[in-house]
Amino acid sequence: MAQLFIFGLGYSAGYIADTMRQSGWHVDATGSAGNVDFADPAAVAAALARASHVLSSVPPSAGSDPVLDAYGDKLPGKWLGYLSSTGVYGDTDGAWVDESAPTGTGRRSARAQADARWLDLGARVFRLPGIYGPSRSAFERIASGKAHRIAIPGQVFSRVHVADIASGVVAAMTGDAPAGAYNLSDDLPCSQNAVIEHACRLMGVEPPPLQSLEEADLSPMARGFYLENRRVANGRAKRVLGWKLQFPTYREGLAAIQAEVQAAISRSGAP
C-alpha cells in the first residue's frame, strides 16, 4: 500500500488526504486532525520511514520552515510536495505571472524563502492563491457581516477551490510529475468585489457598501492582501500535470457550495 505523510493536516491538506485515502493510500499526518505529534521526533521519524510521499502544508514561522528545520534530514529519497502561496510573486500591478516570474519581492519574504528551500530539495511546490470552498467562502463572510467591497479600481486577485487544489496535488503525486513550481489557480482572476456581489445575488441579499481601504478598517493581514494586485497563470499545471479544473471560475465554485448546503438542509428536514 502506498503511504503518504502530511505535515499539517489543515483545510487544503485534509481534502488531499481524503482523496488519497479513497484511492487506497495510507495517510499519516501531524496537526490537530492528524495522528502523529509533530513534537514527537520518534513518532515522526517512524511515520516518515514508512512513507514514500511527503507533503507539507506548514507555513514558515519567524523566517524559518519548521518542517525543514526539524526533519529535513529525513526527507531525501522521498517524493516531496509543499503547499506554498502565490504571494511569493509580490505585487505585479495586475500583470500575469507564471512560474518563471521572480519571487521574494513582496510582503511574503519568509514564504518565498521556504518556497525556495523546498525547490532546492527537489519538491513539487504548489503555489496557491486565495483558497475557498465549503464552510470557507464568500457566503460565510456575508452571513457573518465580515464581507467587504473595497473601492480600488483595477484590483484583481486569483483564487482556487479547495477541491481543485486536491486534484492538482493528487495529479502530481500519482502522475510522477517533475519537480518544480506549479501555480494552482482558477481561470478567472477578478476583483474580490465581483465575487462578493455574485454571492450576494445567489443569497438574495444586498451587497455590503462600497468603502475605501481606510474605511474598511481591515486587519493588517487583510489590508496587505489588498495592497497586492496580480493575475496568476495556470498553464503549466494544466500542461504538465494534466490538471482539469472542476471549478474554472468562482461562479461554478459558489454554485456548487450553495447546492451542497441546500442538499444538506433537505436531508436534515430543516425548514
Automatic annotation (TrEMBL):
Source superkingdom: Bacteria
Keyword terms, alphabetized: NAD
SUPFAM superfamilies assigned: NAD(P)-binding Rossmann-fold domains (SSF51735)
Record protein name field: SDR family NAD(P)-dependent oxidoreductase
